[in-house]
Amino acid sequence: MEVLLAVVLLLFIGYLLYDESLGDPLAPPEPRGRLCDSYAAGGVYEPLADVLARGSRLYEVHVYSDERDHPVVAKHPLNDGYNYAEDNESFEQVCVDITNDAFPSKDPFILSIVLHTDKAVTANECAQHLKTTVRRHLIKTEGGVARMPIDKLVNKLILVSGGNVRGTELEPMINLSWSSEDLRRLSYQQALHPRDEPGLIAYNRDHISLVAPETELRTVNANPDRPKYLGCQWNLYDKSGGGFVEKPSALRTKFRGEE
Q: For residue 30, how many other CB atoms are within 10 A of its CB?
């Protein structure tokens, strides 16, 4: 009898330890930090399917006008000054693919739009394609996206661009602009050798830096980890994927009761 009781007791203790290791399945998940507190790997000049297959949630498109002023996305880097792209796909198709393949997801998806045309009709058509294809994933906010908790951006599309969208229908749809104080667009060399390294680290605590292709669109052997040391969050040279990865606490503003 005593042996039986001992066996039962051991089984019960084992069950408790096993159950504790699993945690409470009904407990709410640990809240995630702000958008600026996480790294995101990305892709540019490659199929969206390849970017998503790696688990990346950042994608940049370089948009040109075709012969009918429709927006098209270049498949290869072009030298500065080019205002057309012969090898391309339609911007509309990219929007459709994002809708079909990037969602649903527990993470937001970041679309960086670089306009290489000053034709307002082309930018306006970009806006219309976004409204008709990814409308339910768009964010209606006046700002502060960089400091929003990721959990409030679940299944949302974050639109990023620069000053070229001013005066177009695309401008009010942009959530973060590298022409504003909340986002910086840096070349890899600028991220590698910043003029003010402590200043960049301080900036990245509450704002976001996007590390993008060189101005001349050269191919470089970039170490994606170097910008991370400075807190740069979004890196188009980083092919690691894996969604959003929280930055070390030393590179984040203290919050959520951190000591």
A: 7
Helix (H) or strand (E) segment spanning residue 125: helix 120-133
| CA 53 – CA 223 distance, rounded (Å) | 21
CB 186 within 8 A of CB 15: no
Q: What is the Cα–Cα distance from 163 to 122, expressed in whole angstroms?
A: 15
What's this model's pTM, rounded to 2 decimal places? 0.85
With beta carbons less than 8 A apart as the criterion, state whether 97 and 61 touch: no
CATH topology (fold) of 34-245: TIM Barrel (3.20.20)
Domain boundaries, the chain: 34-245
Contact between residue 232 and residue 205 where contact means Cβ atoms under 8 Å apart = no
DSSP string of 9-45?
HHHHHHHHHHHHHH--TTSPPPPP-BGGGEEEEEEES
DSSP 243: S
Cα pseudo-dihedral 200, 171, 59, 130, rounded to 10: 160
122-168, pLDDT tens digit by residue?
A: 999 999 999 999 999 999 866 799 999 999 999 999 999 999 999 99
